[in-house]
Amino acid sequence: SQQGEEDPQALSIQEGENATMNCSYKTSINNLQWYRQNSGRGLVHLILIRSNEREKHSGRLRVTLDTSKKSSSLLITASRAADTASYFCASSEGNYQLIWGAGTKLIIKP
Amino acid sequence: EAGVVQSPRYKIIEKKQPVAFWCNPISGHNTLYWYRQNLGQGPELLIRYENEEAVDDSQLPKDRFSAERLKGVDSTLKIQPAELGDSAVYLCASSLFGHNEQFFGPGTRLTVL
Asked: How far is A98 from chain B (nearest CA, A)?
């Protein structure tokens, strides 16, 4: 069942701008993951942040985790047209089950 | 390295008909997942396999859905009979045992008329 929430539901920005998406979850977690889904395709794993980490970087991606607020954010810097996709957060208690949010639909305008 | 393979990519059937989806996970991945994804939502887990054993099928509607992974590699998900509400994308994913990162196939888009 879905227990995560993502905000905003949709985001439209100009190419080159930064995009920030937020995710909230309800239970204590072992880790939180972010995935990207291009239209009509499967999900692609982007980054995993563990509960004892506060920030993690991967290329143009920056993820933060605030366990006291049960929230995470994904920042994509210097956005490109190819970043147009839906982005999902998935929290895990460490038992392989992922609790998914409903996703943020990101549109990058050229 | 080949990714997760699913077939068919699209399927249109009339209600009450049976339908089956096939998945071939990444070589060496012990864990296989079947998800259902409705439009505008995240995936919902239907069943998880560790090798050939279904270790979590609590969300699988067992009155009409069935799955198998006989040799611990390929898997098939079946719906019989299909209902209008089953229209969705059915995703297969795999992972190494003990790893949280999941690798997804492209999915099968099912339309029930």
From this structure: 8
Q: Does B104 touch chain A (CB under 8 A)?
A: yes
Q: Are A40 and A94 in contact (CB under 8 A)?
A: no
3-state secondary structure of A48: strand
Q: What is the pLDDT of residues A32-72, one digit of tens each?
A: 999 999 988 889 999 999 999 999 999 999 999 999 999 99
- Cβ contacts of A90 on chain B, cutoff 8 Å: 42
Smallest Cα–Cα separation from A20: which of A86, A95, A75, A97? A75
Q: Rg of chain A over CA atoms, in angstroms?
A: 13
pLDDT in tens, B59-101: 999 999 999 998 889 999 999 999 999 999 999 999 987 778 8
Point out which residues pair with B19 in neighbouring strands.
B79
Q: How far does chain B reach from its first CA to its final CA, in angstroms?
A: 37
Neighbour-count burial of B49, counting CB atoms closer than 10 A to its CB (0-12 exposed, 13-18 middle, 19+ buried): buried
Q: Nearest 5 degrees, angle CA B4-CA B7-CA B8?
A: 150
- The beta-carbon neighbor of B102 closest among A30, A31, A45 is A45
CA distance A45 to A41: 13
